[in-house]
Amino acid sequence: MIYLEEALRVLFANKVRTLLTITGLIIGVGAVIAIQVLGASMATAVNGALGNLADNSFIVSPSQFQGDFRKAAIKISDIADVVQNVPNVIQGLPAGGQRVLVQHEHAQARYRLSPESDHPFDNSATAYGRKFVADDLVAAASICVLTNRAYAKLFPSGGDPIGQSVYAGLHRYVVIGVLAAPKRGLLNTNFTGDLMIPYTTYTKQYIHGGLAFGARFVVADPSSMSLTEIAVMNEIKKLHGNPKGLQFQTFDKSLITGGINGIFKVLTLIVALIGAVSLLVAGIGVMNIMLVSVTERTREIGVRKAIGARRGQVLAQFFIEALLLCGLGCFIGMIIGLSIGSIVNHVAIVKLNGSVPPLPWIQSLVTTATFMIVVTLAFGTYPAYRAAGLDPIEALRYE
Length: 399
Prior knowledge:
Layout: H1 2-13, H2 15-49, E1 57-62, E2 74-75, H3 76-85, E3 89-95, E4 98-104, E5 107-116, E6 126-129, H4 134-139, E7 143-146, H5 148-154, E8 165-168, E9 171-179, E10 195-198, H6 199-206, E11 211-212, E12 214-219, H7 225-239, E13 248-251, H8 253-296, H9 298-306, H10 311-353, H11 361-379, H12 381-388, H13 392-397
Parallel strand pairs: 5-10, 7-9
Antiparallel strand pairs: 1-12, 1-13, 2-11, 3-12, 4-5, 4-8, 6-9, 7-10, 8-9
């Protein structure tokens, strides 16, 4: 406690020098903490927006970067063969959809109509009614599920729409469900068409040539998704006779989240490196000031040793002073970094996420403590060791 009081007295006696010394630490730690907060907030926003996307299915479609796109067109019969021959695939259905004019009484609008199964691609809750079940698919029923956006347009007066009819082109569908409104935010959206019908109905009414834009496959075990995707593409190539250059591409939830998280990791690493350079410069500054302090207090050190202070006591005194200097800079940097992150969360991230993400206090404290310990050990040890090693007689002679 005596050493701490002595260190505080020295630091506050030289306020301007102390502030200038810790400025580098404040900038370095503040930058690293701020990018940590923003990276975590963006990842939370994007992953939250994709939270409604099912993780047990994927889409296969012909790659657009090939010579003859038509050779890779997926047939309805291909989908059935894949379900029968590829392990882990429990259901296959055409993917995509088409825009149609949808009407209910005097309200109408053009919406994308898409095929859906009893394993929905979008896990949004329902505001009214239900989603599709297996019997709806077997019967190829003329029923539909609306998104909240289509419901608001087609049923402007509100109320329960279950059992009422809407017309899509020449076909009539009975409404059996309405998806709940997505959370507020730019990234929160539905991942299906605004009007969904059973895929068996869609195949019967809209795929007259037997060709689909792509296919969606539902798997029993999502942990084997990657291997299943490869097996499905190989099976489709085999069904097409394995012509050279035939290419397919897949799309699933992990592809999006993995790419976005990878971008944030790279950005975090770049800023962390910049912050590390700043901390290196700040650490050199701390060492320089501590060496100056040892030089200025050489006579004081000599007096202390002359009256009985041991080497370890002098070492502890200057080491605590360096630790206090680094801790003060890192703590102020953490507060500034968290403040910047909080402001950006309230101004910008809330528009993407719909809510303000929590601040990563524990992660920030661990990062700050790590920086403080590393900088103190790397740049504060030598000045303390030098002070402790002074000869008391030579120190007393120092002018």
